[in-house]
Design brief:
By secondary structure, this protein is mostly helical. Helix content is 67%, strand content 0%. Strands 1-2 form a two-stranded parallel ribbon.
Length: 967
């Protein structure tokens, strides 16, 4: 720029030599002098050589202007200087300098025309600037003349008029500002009255007015203050919105929603509402649990308020667990009820809104309102699941925070009832299956139920080992529904009845059983009525002194032969005890008398036969079913444990009264294959055979034996060896028939259990009933067979028959003595049966089994006695028939059992004596019910009469062929 300015001050262009004098000292150092230029021109020029010299110059010389070349060259000098070398190096530098100077001079001469042209342009620019200065001077002089010639008075009048107009507008604005400033007091009053819509409306109007006068500084402050007030209103509105989460009030909520509508924040309000509900759930449960924890902790220094909710739940004591759970559910119910009411308000509000006439502004507002309503509806529906999920998680943390394995049964049932009621609330609230609650309570229930069932099995073993098998006197109309434990089956309002099932029922029933939200919408709480439901109820199932009336007590010891001991209903129609049906025709008095001989049940009416242990098992089944009914996820576990109760009872009765090595080794076949399979299964799966033995650990690890129970032992108070009591027949009857009664009760519960059982596990229940419950009555055969085998002295009869001479020649008209002895044994047996019946009723099926066993054993003893005969004539065979007919005739008077068991067994054997050789061979093949000894004796006795030795050998060979497969 300095160069340009210096050029502008010159009058004309200078020669290159003159212009060089104006250069700076630095430039002068770089431009060669005239002499140098001359020398350079005179020197011969070789461009390539010059370029090589320039290229040989060190790069450092071209770095920057501050480079000190002298210092650089001095530093390069060697320690020992040589004049010749210095001169050579100096000449090299001079050549390099000369080449550079010549290059610079050439460049200057090359750019000289451009330099002269640019200098001319600068001179022309200077001339134009001088002309512009003259024009500006003339314009200023003319403006001064126009200003002096204008009328200042007229402009002053215009200015005053304008000022007056502005002041008039200012006065109006000031009055409006004064009104705006007074609105603060009114806004505060409205907020105290909770008139949020009015306060917002006023505030918005003030803001609109203030925006008109925003050019005033005071208004800008007022506008800021109004904005702060509006924010304060929103904060108070948010607090008011949070209050609806616990106690919903229609008027209050309507004000709040209208206020948010005025603000245009309907969607924001709904987001805030859900946040408040979530916070309300958290705060509510924390405060409830904290209150109980601090109450139970007393003056402990533990800072419970700083604990997490999950940790706080672990400090709940067992005594306060149920009250705290109840209060927890009550508080959560209030929150869910508020949400339910909120949804109802929005549904009714949407219905009440009418569609306005269509004009453009209203249509736009209507579209926005429709969008807001749609958003609110979706948000509320989505919030149902979220809120219920929060409730489940809070209650789950509480449930799992305490080990309930040591709870009392009634307390645990109350817990299940409360949780079941809560799950019902959840189903009505959002159609949820409450998987979180079900899983948590299932974990606790399985843990609790395993311990509970183990204790009950041990308790049942103790009951069985101390049971004297005496009759527990109950009323004749006793039914399990009379027990407290089965009341739940008759209750229509059962916590287990899900709302979905109620909805599927008839409309009338739905009206009678409204939902919980309908029942407790105005007042009350569904969690206030689950306790003290059955406290005032009393059971009335026991008969006084074992009899239901004094009249029955008198009839017990009356003579059997009189009609006074026959109940009136038996005089009219005999009722079949097995079926309960009465025949179409009345039976004769003789039939009644014959019936009473076999059915030793005329005392104590027809009350069920059961023991205290039976009653205890039935009660346990009721308790188990209560738990299963309330908590269906563990239904299979409960039913499995119920089956174990029955299994253990059945196994105990069999072990005490039915196990006998004598008939098992002899292969009598009293136990069916199905019953034997059932007993083996029970023994393998339930009975711990090692508990009393020495080979502990042989049959499996200890973990596998935790579910097993030691085999019970019969009480020493029970005597089964006394012939006077028919070897404990009374105890056997009570034990066996109580098992049959228990099986009948299980049969009556099958449909209910089947309804509770999961579909995948139903085959287990069906198998349990078909292979276990139905086999209870089959235990009668082995148990009563032991009595029948000992009640009659069959050995004495064999000895007496051995002393009879059967090869007589005359037909006898008098039967043998052994028949009378045998009949006396039966009469004694009949008398003892009557004595036992005074202690316990002997049902018809039991008496039939006893008589059948005795008669069957007697008939087989007769055949065995006949098979011991060495010699026998036709007259001897006739005597055998006479003896047997005499026996049958007298026996039919003692029992009404028809037909007589094994009658054909004896008669066929006696008649076989008369068979020919061919018929005898066919007889041996067809009648395998006889032993080999009996068949061989038949062949040997017939030898000589109508069978020769050859035929004898042939028949004995046939008998031997039949016997081989048996070996």
């Amino acid at each position: 720029m300095q160069k340009i300015k210096s050029l502008m001050g010159r009058q004309g262009p200078k020669s290159p030599q003159e212009s060089m004098t104006d250069l700076s000292p630095v430039e002068k150092m770089r431009i060669p002098s005239k002499e140098e230029l001359r020398e350079l021109r005179e020197q011969p020029t070789d461009p390539l050589e010059e370029q090589e010299i320039i290229d040989s110059i060190e790069d450092v010389y071209f770095s920057n202007d501050s480079f000190d070349m002298v210092q650089h060259e001095l530093q390069k000098l060697p320690p020992e200087l040589s004049l010749l070398e210095l001169e050579e190096y100096r000449d090299k530098l001079k050549r390099q300098q000369a080449a550079v100077s010549k290059k610079v001079a050439d460049l200057i001469l090359e750019k000289q025309p451009s330099y002269v042209k640019e200098l001319e342009r600068v001179t022309a620019l200077q001339t134009n600037l001088q002309l512009a200065s003259v024009i500006c001077t003339n314009a200023r002089r003319q403006l001064r003349v126009s200003k002096e010639g204008f009328t200042e008075a007229s402009l002053g009048l215009l200015a005053n008029q304008r000022r007056r107009h502005l002041l008039t507008g200012l006065l109006k604005s000031l009055r409006t500002i004064k009104t705006l400033q007074r609105t603060d007091v009114r806004l505060s009053e409205m907020l105290e009255e909770e008139d949020y819509p009015g306060a917002i409306q006023l505030c918005l109007e003030c803001q609109k007015a203030a925006s008109t006068f925003k050019h005033y500084s005071c208004i800008s402050e007022l506008n800021s203050k109004l904005q702060d007030t509006l924010e304060q209103i929103e904060e108070q509105l948010d607090v008011a919105l949070s209050k609806t989460c616990k106690h919903f009030d229609v008027a209050h909520y309507t004000k709040v929603q209208l206020a948010y509508t005025l603000l245009g924040k309907t969607q924001t309000a709904m987001d805030q509402l859900h946040m408040h509900f979530t916070q309300a759930i958290h705060n509510t449960v924390f405060q409830v649990v904290l209150g109980y924890v601090e109450l139970c902790a007393g003056n402990a220094d533990t800072k419970f308020q700083k604990m997490q909710y999950r940790d706080l739940c672990t400090h709940i004591t067992l005594d306060s667990y149920i009250p705290c759970l109840t209060d927890l559910c009550k508080a959560l119910w209030e929150v869910m009820l508020s949400y339910h009411c909120t949804m109802q308000w929005h549904e009714e509000h949407d219905k009440q809104e009418t569609t306005p006439t269509s004009d453009d502004p209203a249509a736009a507002e209507r579209d926005k309102s429709v969008v807001d309503r749609s958003y609110v509806k979706k948000k509320l529906e989505h919030g149902l699941t979220r809120i219920w999920q929060d409730v489940q998680l809070k209650v789950k943390a509480y449930i799992l925070g305490t080990d309930m394995s040591n709870f009392k049964y009634d307390d645990f049932i109350v817990v299940l009832d409360v949780i079941s009621r809560l799950m019902q609330v959840g189903e009505e609230f959002c159609n949820s299956r409450s998987e979180v609650l079900q899983e948590s309570i299932k974990r606790q229930s399985v843990n609790y139920f395993k311990n509970y069932h183990r204790a009950r099995l041990e308790e049942l073993r103790m009951f069985l080992e101390n049971e004297t098998w005496e009759l527990c006197p109950v009323k004749s109309n006793f039914n399990i529904s009379q027990l407290h434990e089965f009341n739940f089956m008759a209750q229509c309002r059962s916590p287990s009845i899900s709302p979905s099932r109620q909805a599927s029922s008839s409309s009338s029933q739905t009206q009678e059983n409204p939902s919980l939200f309908q029942q407790f919408l105005q007042d009350g709480n569904p969690f206030e009525m689950h306790i003290e439901q059955n406290e005032e109820e009393t059971e009335d199932v026991l008969a006084s002194n074992g009899y239901e009336s004094d009249e029955l007590e008198k009839n017990v010891y009356q003579d059997y032969d009189s009609d006074s001991d026959v109940p009136e209903e038996l005089k009219q129609d005999y009722i079949d005890e097995q079926t309960g049906d009465a025949p179409l025709k009345s039976v004769s008095r003789e039939t009644i008398r014959s019936k009473k001989r076999s059915d030793y049940n005329l005392n104590k009416s027809n009350a069920p036969i059961l023991t205290n242990t039976t009653l205890n098992v039935i009660r346990l089944v009721g308790k188990y079913m209560q738990m299963m009914n309330i908590l269906k996820p563990i239904a299979f576990d409960v039913i499995h444990c119920v089956s174990q109760l029955f299994d253990y009872y059945l196994y105990a009765v069999y072990t005490f009264f039915g196990r006998n090595d004598m008939y098992e080794s002899s292969g009598v076949g009293l136990i069916s294959s199905r019953l034997r399979t059932t007993l083996n299964r029970i023994q393998e799966s339930l009975i711990d055979m090692e508990s009393g033995g020495e080979n502990v650990g042989v049959h499996g690890p200890v973990e596998d034996r935790k579910e097993k129970v030691p085999s019970p032992h019969l009480s020493q108070m029970v005597v089964l060896t006394n012939s006077g009591t028919l070897y404990g027949l009374a105890q056997r009857v009570v034990a066996t028939e109580s098992l049959v009664f228990l099986a009948e009760q299980f049969e009556s519960l099958q449909s209910h259990l089947d309804m509770m059982m999961p579909a995948a596990k139903k085959p287990f229940l069906q198998q349990f009933y078909s292979q276990t419950v139905s086999t209870a009555s089959e235990l009668r055969k082995p148990i009563y067979w032991i009595v029948a085998a000992k009640a009659i002295d069959y050995e004495q009869m064999l000895l007496l028959m051995a002393g009879v001479k059967w090869d007589i020649r005359d037909i006898m008209s008098q039967h043998n003595v052994y028949v009378d002895v045998l009949l006396k044994e039966f009469e004694l047996f009949n008398k003892r049966m009557g004595d036992v019946s005074r202690i316990v009723r002997i049902p018809l099926p039991v008496s039939n089994v006893l008589w059948e066993h005795c008669i069957r054993l007697a008939n087989r003893t007769l055949v065995e006695g006949y098979a011991n005969v060495k010699k026998c004539s036709n007259e001897g065979r006739a005597l055998m028939q006479l003896d047997f007919q005499q026996f049958l005739m007298k026996l039919e008077k003692l029992t009404d059992l028809r037909p007589i068991p094994d009658k054909e067994f004896v008669e066929t054997y006696i008649k076989a004596y008369y068979l020919t050789e061919n018929d005898m061979e066919q007889f041996i093949k067809n009648h395998r019910e006889y032993s080999m000894k009996q068949l061989a004796n038949l062949v040997n006795v017939c030898l000589g009469s109508h069978i020769n030795k050859k035929a004898r050998q042939k028949l004995l060979a046939a008998i031997d062929d039949i016997d081989r497969p048996r070996r």
